[in-house]
């Protein structure tokens, strides 16, 4: 069987502010292999539509079976999938604010964690059953978008989407500091820290540092720039600072990651 990947990007202005994409991966793996997924700054609602898949978060080092629907929160350390046989994953990739909008829960509870979807929101159990009955990716996307529309309509935080997105996701991050952000948005450090913790699952300083790492990850994957230049472009003071921060998230140096790059940013196959 040929491996396939499908991706859908929402077109609605509201959805685009917290949904990165809906994706489906269909693979047929004969032998067991491990896929290392580096921190990507996203929250994902994932539906496992095929064989049993196991995971191991390096923060816990415990191997567990993935449920049919699970929520993978923001990771600060690599996340390992152990695959064997057929794999069909269907996912909704959100930025940090998406989980609060769709499920009325704090994203912080999901940091470095995988939780069964039905334990968080019963509507995910219904959605899972609906998706199992749909054969094509287009049918699955339509079903998911209907669910998202319904969740938005009952969200306690719908009116805050534009404000929070503008606050945290419309700024150039490479030279940003907490003080600069406070001045730009006319909020106190304390107020901004509270909003950051509530919506992003991390304090403001951690959010800025995390996004500098994400910028460097993107540049490593998409460009042939020298490592020193990538570090500067991402906002690091010098090469040693870049290496130290990158390794704190990935357990790899930037050079080691560049040697392991696959066609998917932040994914390494062992």
What are the main properties of this structure?
270 residues; alpha+beta; Jelly Rolls; Arc Repressor Mutant, subunit A; 2 domains; 12 helices; 43% helix; globular
Structural description of this entry:
This protein is α+β, with helices and mostly antiparallel strands and 270 residues long. The chain has 2 domains: 4-157, Jelly Rolls (Sandwich); 171-269, Arc Repressor Mutant, subunit A. It contains 12 helices and 9 strands. Strands 1, 2, 3, 4, 5, 6, 7, 8 and 9 form a 9-stranded antiparallel sheet that branches. Strand 4 (54-57) and strand 5 (63-65) form a beta hairpin. The longest helix is centred in the last third of the chain and has 19 residues, at 204-222. It is globular and about 50 Å long. It starts with a strand and ends with a strand. The model has no long low-confidence stretch (mean pLDDT 89).
Q: Tell me the fraction of residues in β-strands, as a range.
A: 15-25%
Structural class: alpha+beta
User: What is the CATH architecture annotation of the largest domain?
Assistant: Sandwich
Q: What is the 3D form?
A: globular
Count of DSSP E strands?
A: 9
Q: How would a crystallographer describe the biggest sheet?
A: 9 strands, antiparallel
In CATH terms, what is the fold-level topology of the largest domain? Answer: Jelly Rolls
Helix content: 40-55%
The number of domains: 2
Alpha carbon gyration radius: 19 Å
CATH class annotation of the largest domain: Mainly Beta
Name the CATH superfamily assignment of the largest domain. Jelly Rolls
What is the fold's blueprint, element by element?
Blueprint: E1 4-8, H1 13-16, E2 19-37, E3 43-48, E4 54-57, E5 63-65, E6 69-72, E7 79-94, H2 98-103, E8 114-116, H3 117-120, H4 122-132, H5 137-153, H6 161-169, H7 178-185, H8 189-200, H9 204-222, H10 227-234, H11 239-250, H12 254-259, E9 267-269
Antiparallel strand pairs: 1-2, 2-7, 2-9, 3-6, 3-7, 4-5, 4-7, 6-8
């Amino acid at each position: 069987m040929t491996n396939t990947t499908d991706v859908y990007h929402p077109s609605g202005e509201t959805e685009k502010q917290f949904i990165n994409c809906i994706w489906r991966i269909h693979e047929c793996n004969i032998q067991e292999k491990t896929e290392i997924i580096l921190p990507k700054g996203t929250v994902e609602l994932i539906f496992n539509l095929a064989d049993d898949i196991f995971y191991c978060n390096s923060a816990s080092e415990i191997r567990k079976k993935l449920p049919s629907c699970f929520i993978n929160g923001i990771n600060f350390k690599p996340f390992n999938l152990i695959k064997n046989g057929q794999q069909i994953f269907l996912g909704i990739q959100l930025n940090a604010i998406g989980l609060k909008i769709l499920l009325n829960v704090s994203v912080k509870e999901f940091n470095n964690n995988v939780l069964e979807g039905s334990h968080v929101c019963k509507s995910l159990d219904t959605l899972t059953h609906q998706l199992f009955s749909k054969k094509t990716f287009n049918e699955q996307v339509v079903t998911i978008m209907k669910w998202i529309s319904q969740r938005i309509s009952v969200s306690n935080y719908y009116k805050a989407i534009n404000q929070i997105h503008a606050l945290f996701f419309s700024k150039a991050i490479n030279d940003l500091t907490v003080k600069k952000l406070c001045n730009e948005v006319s909020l106190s450090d304390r107020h901004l820290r509270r909003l950051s913790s509530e919506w992003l699952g991390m304090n403001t300083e951690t959010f800025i540092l995390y996004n500098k790492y994400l910028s460097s990850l993107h540049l490593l994957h998409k460009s042939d720039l020298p490592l020193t230049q990538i570090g500067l472009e991402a906002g690091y003071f010098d090469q040693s600072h870049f290496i130290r921060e990158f390794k704190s998230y990935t357990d790899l140096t930037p050079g080691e990651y560049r040697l392991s790059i696959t066609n998917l940013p932040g994914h390494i196959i062992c």
